[in-house]
């Protein structure tokens, strides 16, 4: 994977720990699905058991309050970066059809964001997330 690109996740800091982990897992799956070149090779242990591949580059996870999260999302949208979103409504749904409908129900600027993942050029991602702190 090129050092010129970056994968980052931003989660809202007032979520419960399980919610932050859930959001992170779901939104990074969007990057894997749409940017297959971010995926490395399969893993294999010393006994020959094969394991699924993972990202071939680090994934940085940030925490932000709702205002900073929304501002970072707006910057990522302005820079036309690849973005996966998770909204508050998705905590109450249990299937992909309802998830997509929940996101579709709100315009971009009105999304109740719990978090998002972003992939793009390192500089563009850094500019979109400028001022955010890494998740503790």
The named CATH superfamily: Bit1
CATH fold name: Bit1
Principal-axis shape equals globular
Largest sheet, order of strands side by side?
5-6-1-4-7
CATH architecture: 3-Layer(aba) Sandwich
Instruction: Indicate the CATH class.
Output: Alpha Beta
Beta-strand percent range: 25-35%
The string of secondary-structure elements, in order, is: EHEEEHEHEHE
Assign a percent range to the helix content: 25-40%
Instruction: Please count the helical segments.
Output: 4
| Mean pLDDT, all residues | 95
Briefly characterize the structure.
The protein has 136 residues and is an alpha+beta fold. The chain contains four helices and seven strands.
Outline the secondary-structure elements.
Elements: E1 5-12, H1 17-34, E2 43-44, E3 50-51, E4 59-64, H2 66-78, E5 82-87, H3 96-104, E6 113-121, H4 122-128, E7 133-134
Parallel strand pairs: 1-4
Antiparallel strand pairs: 1-6, 2-3, 4-7, 5-6
Helix pairs in contact: 2-4
Protein name: DUF2000 domain-containing protein
Pfam family, one: DUF2000
Report on this model:
This is DUF2000 domain-containing protein. Pfam families: DUF2000 (PF09391). It comes from Amycolatopsis acididurans. It is a single chain. This protein has about 140 residues and is of the alpha+beta class. It has a single domain, classed as Bit1, CATH 3.40.1490.10. About 35% of the residues lie in helices and about 25% in strands. It is built from four helices and seven strands; from the N terminus they run βαβββαβαβαβ. The strands form two sheets. Strands 5-6-1-4-7 form a five-stranded mixed beta sheet, sandwiched between helices. Strands 2-3 form a two-stranded antiparallel sheet. α2 runs antiparallel to α4. The mean pLDDT is about 95.
């Amino acid at each position: 994977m090129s050092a010129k690109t970056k994968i980052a996740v931003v989660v809202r800091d007032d979520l419960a720990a399980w919610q932050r982990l859930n959001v992170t897992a779901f939104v990074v799956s969007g990057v894997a699905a749409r940017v297959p070149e971010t995926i490395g090779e399969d893993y294999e242990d010393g006994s020959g058991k094969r394991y699924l591949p993972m990202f071939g580059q680090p994934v940085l996870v940030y925490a932000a309050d709702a205002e900073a999260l929304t501002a970072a999302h707006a910057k990522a949208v302005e820079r036309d970066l690849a973005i996966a979103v998770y909204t508050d409504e998705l905590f109450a749904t249990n299937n992909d059809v309802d998830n997509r409908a929940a996101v579709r129900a709100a315009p971009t600027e009105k999304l109740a964001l719990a978090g998002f993942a972003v992939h793009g050029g390192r500089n563009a991602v850094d500019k979109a997330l400028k001022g955010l702190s890494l998740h503790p």
